């Protein structure tokens, strides 16, 4: 059992490791490995390290190997010394910076996506915003499962009630000091956190002087201000914890919380770095004969080698890495694999399909009066102020500007609460779902009209229509920390893209075709969001500061003018890609079942953000931990009961 303190005081944490992560049982070459492992986990990111931590703790007699492309690195926060320009992304751990192909419906602009390439994965490089989605998002996940073969819906619950215990388990929240809470009017509810895990979240002891410009404007707009938004009720103006240590204010991420601080010294835990899972190989041409052999590629150019597995393989290399491994393994869309000259092992059209992400344009204003606020990010350019900020950051507990990440405050607003025309949008979604013409669905040509993908998308449309019609389920997010702009983020896009193996460089990240705004209803949603959010620029709060709308601009009043602005200025990825190995029934284009096992296989499971059927109304870090905690619970229960001893058992 975990014995981590509930952390009622800051100083109880001082003995925890927060500097360079302990390297523990790190391996760097094949000769250092065992002949076989009970569990092999591909990917040492948020989900993979969570599962490895839980399995090595629950099964001290079983050996677990994590294979990670990156290295053990210290992961700075988003805004740590020596940076002096707030909002930068430098000094972070290693990552891939990926570009999609052009999106014709957004003026051929591309999506820019950053993915972690380090022990800890994207939790080592993200914006540290640590929120949960609306309860209705997760209820939608569960609704989309229907009655799958194998484990039944009633046995594995992916609704809010089914995942909420794992959200609580996955993080330790520390309330701010009384003086900080009083200064910023922070509110929270400690009952929504279990506080037994060394993944930390806290409310920062510093906000920029103009932070309340947006909050006051949004209150003027009538947006509800709940006490807590991590309880499944997400509609409103929320305070959000950031994933940092409450004493040192250093980034809290999986590489520390689920490896170096707790698991690195366990003798049954091996972490192989600077290696890549090339593919999984079944001993016989029968995917029910698993678990598969894991083929590994050293990044130093050495020969590929195999690792045998006794219990199961867990793919946890993320939204882009996991479908690439499956496709290299001959598991995926038959037509694509044939075109790539990859022998077909298992036809699963959903592998690499269903790609979507949060997107939207950024609105801005100019100030025509001097701002009466202190401090502002520009004050960091003053050498004395910046030096004092460094001193404050290194105090115990840390304080000052460097304790703040990108943001910890945002609004989430439902479609019915922002426009009276919401019912027209909902009706159009339902009408589209029932269309007899598959070409009217605006799906990728790469789908090839596959019936299962079409039916799965229809089911998503109907579920999303109900979600968007719910006045308690957010459609728009906008976060603010300082400055003169705010993003109108679309939380539930209808457009779908693909992630397909790069045939020229098959061991590099796949080719991403986002196809943003390819479904025209997305533009109707963007338009509603933009019209709603621009209202903040005309509140008494901003008007009193001399704010003048800069973008879209006061001349952009017609739908046509606003659509032109959106097409040119939409950010296609707010770094929350998902859903490329979706948890859906196989007959609806799904790749994994409710137990996260790959359909039609034995001994092969996927646990990362690729398994989501649709995006939640949240940044994905907290969800990644919760999904992994639930998956670990499933795996532990299964192998504790010895269910995996029969090689013939697997998903249909």
From TrEMBL:
Q: Where does FAD bind?
A: 118, 277
Output one GO MF annotation.
Answer: oxidoreductase activity, acting on CH-OH group of donors
Q: Which domain of life is it from?
A: Eukaryota
Binding positions for substrate per the UniProt entry? 574
Query: Which GO terms of type biological process are on file?
Result: secondary metabolite biosynthetic process
Q: Does the keyword field hold Flavoprotein? A: yes
The reply on keyword Signal is yes
Q: Which of UniProt's keywords are assigned here? A: FAD, Flavoprotein, Signal
Q: Pfam families this protein is in?
A: GMC_oxred_C (PF05199), GMC_oxred_N (PF00732)
Q: Signal peptide span per the entry?
A: 1-19
Name the cofactor(s) required for activity, per the record: FAD
Q: Which InterPro entries match?
A: FAD/NAD-bd_sf, GMC_OxRdtase, GMC_OxRdtase_N, GMC_OxRtase_C
Q: Which residues form the Glucose-methanol-choline oxidoreductase N-terminal domain?
A: 116-139
Annotated active site residues, numbered on this chain, are: 576 (proton donor), 619 (proton acceptor)
**What protein family does this chain belong to?**
Belongs to the GMC oxidoreductase family.
Know the name of this protein?
Glucose-methanol-choline oxidoreductase N-terminal domain-containing protein
